[in-house]
């Protein structure tokens, strides 16, 4: 979906396909047919943006076989789909029964992360629509925090500088500009937008910036205005924004609230949980750990890194952080010029929701994703953006 900003630039809205992960190129082609095109049809649009997640094997096939890339591009065109952004955070196994900490490997200290991201950039230059010259890729925020030291920081910086040089060369070769954004996430070396400023300033290259995920922003209790103003002041480019909402518990000391939260404690993904105290942010690596006795102070609200559907906040006594998303979006695209032009709805946890809330069929999942995109579209038009055909 495309929108015209009042300043005349085009803002792209997509949804991320890691909600129905596929490890191979054949799997990606199937997901276009079974999931992405049905969502487009529900929206009544001739064209729908998708943020592709390409696992290692799929990316390798596309970058080593030009005919495979042509097949994918042809299928996108045939099904009324377009790609301007890729989710480069998960490397492989995102559809596994247990993902948890595995999603952070390989990190930016491992040469394979550089090679994989380079491959994604090359693939994206071949997938961009004919009238689009800029693409974006989100990536993990350097590494999980445990064991990360100064030597690792230097390895990461060197790898990202090498990536920037490769992106420059790719631009010269293809005429298409690809940018990569570190995506701050609770528990990682770069947990907040503030944590991103120093390492990105050390790189100081406009092809390497930040991907702001509004669920992660909210989980860490960051104020959107303050966070985005700090990025602007530091001249850190917002490469893309993932529109997502976290799980919010206003009164975590109440038994009924803990019972409601426990329904979201599931075995597949990490759900880092945070609370803001007078002494600073406190947290656990997972929701189950937070619910253990005395693990977290419970005199103030808790937020958990659980991407809940944008249009469907959980039932009381819980809610979502949709207001944080609204505030962030207002700052990102509601001003005289957009801070970013790539927006991506990223609710990958539909099948991790409590059983009663999960879609039971592909049709229900398509309905839900279409409803999320409709909400995002309405937020954009309320800010003065005009949807394009």
From TrEMBL:
Q: Which residues cross the membrane?
A: none
Give the keywords, sorted.
Isomerase
The Xylose isomerase-like TIM barrel domain sits at 60-228
The record ties this protein, via Gene3D superfamilies, to: Divalent-metal-dependent TIM barrel enzymes (3.20.20.150)
Q: Which GO terms describe its molecular function?
A: isomerase activity; zinc ion binding
Matching entries from InterPro entries are given as: AP_endonuc_F2_Zn_BS (IPR018246), Xyl_isomerase-like_sf (IPR036237), Xyl_isomerase-like_TIM-brl (IPR013022)
Q: Name one Pfam family in it.
A: AP_endonuc_2
Protein's recorded name: Xylose isomerase
């Amino acid at each position: 979906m495309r929108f015209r900003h009042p300043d005349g630039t085009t803002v792209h809205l997509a949804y991320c396909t890691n909600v129905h992960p596929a490890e191979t190129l054949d799997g990606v082609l199937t997901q276009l047919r079974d999931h992405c095109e049905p969502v487009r049809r529900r929206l009544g649009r001739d064209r729908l943006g998708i943020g592709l997640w390409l696992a290692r094997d799929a990316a390798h096939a596309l970058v080593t076989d030009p005919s495979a890339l042509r097949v994918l591009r042809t299928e996108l065109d045939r099904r009324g789909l377009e790609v301007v952004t890729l989710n480069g955070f998960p490397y492989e196994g995102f559809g596994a029964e247990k993902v948890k900490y595995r999603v952070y490997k390989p990190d930016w200290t491992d040469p394979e992360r550089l090679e994989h991201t380079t491959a994604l950039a090359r693939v994206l230059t071949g997938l961009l629509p004919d009238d689009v010259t800029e693409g974006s890729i989100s990536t993990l925020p350097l590494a999980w925090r445990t064991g990360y030291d100064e030597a690792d920081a230097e390895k990461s910086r060197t790898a990202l500088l090498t990536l920037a040089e490769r992106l420059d060369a790719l631009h010269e070769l293809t005429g298409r500009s690809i940018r990569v954004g570190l995506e701050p996430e609770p528990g990682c070396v770069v947990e907040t937008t503030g944590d991103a400023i120093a390492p990105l300033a050390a790189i100081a290259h406009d092809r390497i910036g930040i991907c702001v995920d509004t669920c992660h922003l909210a989980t860490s209790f960051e104020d959107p205005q303050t966070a985005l103003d700090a990025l602007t002041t530091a001249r850190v480019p917002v490469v893309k924004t993932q529109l997502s909402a976290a799980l919010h518990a206003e009164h975590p000391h109440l038994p009924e609230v803990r019972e409601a939260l426990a329904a979201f404690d599931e075995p597949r993904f990490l759900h880092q949980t945070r609370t803001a105290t007078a002494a600073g942010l406190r947290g656990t690596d997972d929701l189950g750990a937070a619910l253990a006795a005395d693990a977290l102070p419970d005199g103030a609200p808790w937020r958990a890194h659980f991407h809940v559907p944008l249009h469907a906040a959980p039932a009381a006594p819980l809610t979502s952080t949709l207001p944080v998303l609204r505030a962030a979006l207002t700052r990102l695209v509601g001003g005289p010029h957009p801070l970013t032009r790539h927006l991506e709805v990223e609710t990958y946890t539909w099948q991790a929701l409590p059983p009663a809330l999960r879609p039971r069929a592909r049709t229900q999942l398509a309905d839900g994703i279409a409803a999320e995109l409709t909400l995002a579209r309405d937020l954009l038009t309320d800010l003065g953006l005009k949807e394009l055909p």
